[in-house]
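Slide 14.
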Amino acid sequence: MKFFLDSAKLDEIKLAYNTFGIDGVTTNPRHIMLSEKPFMTAITDIANWIKEEGLEGVDKFPVSVEINPHFDNTEDMIKMAREVAKLSPNFVIKIPAIESGIAAARILEKEGIRTNVTLIFSPAQAILPAKNGSLFVSPFIGWKEQNGEDCKEYIKNIVEIYKNYGYHGKTQIICAALRTPKQIADCAVAGADIVTCGLAVYQDCMKHAYTTQGLKTFCEAWDNTAQ
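Slide 15: predicted structure.
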């Protein structure tokens, strides 16, 4: 399973890459806003860092960049997607899982512009993007579980559908909007290809009360042992 960082803050991206070895980045309009940079500045800064690190290429370090969410027609989506894609070979265009979005993603993939169909909340929404060759689909987890839904079967069903029809591996499943370490583990059990979450969630993955207690016990033993 691969691990992406859900952020547009360059300092967080650098930290997550150097500490956890993240495999890619996902952004959205909210993350761009939180970066406190203009849209073009935020994504260009990420593109420049990728080049400095020698990570150029969507196969090495994909970065999902979402187009203007106000667009609800295919032509506008395609026009902006082409402009964004020119900025970096790493950019994957995030497009919403709506009818015009599926049409746009289908055309873009034929042009060699990779897409990530996002805001997926059901297995049915994940089928057509795979049929039409999108690189990624992003089923959301945190939002659903926040409203009392258990998402383990939801992800397992998408994985099973993809295996049934030969989409598995061609279109990769990014479990998105993860809020807890347990959700990461659940997605791993379900067979997701990728998880994406904020830096704090990855940091929380490495915290456990027993680990803290164990370190305390071992430190006390070390201090009471002749060196």
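Speaker note: The chain is about 50% helix and 15% strand.
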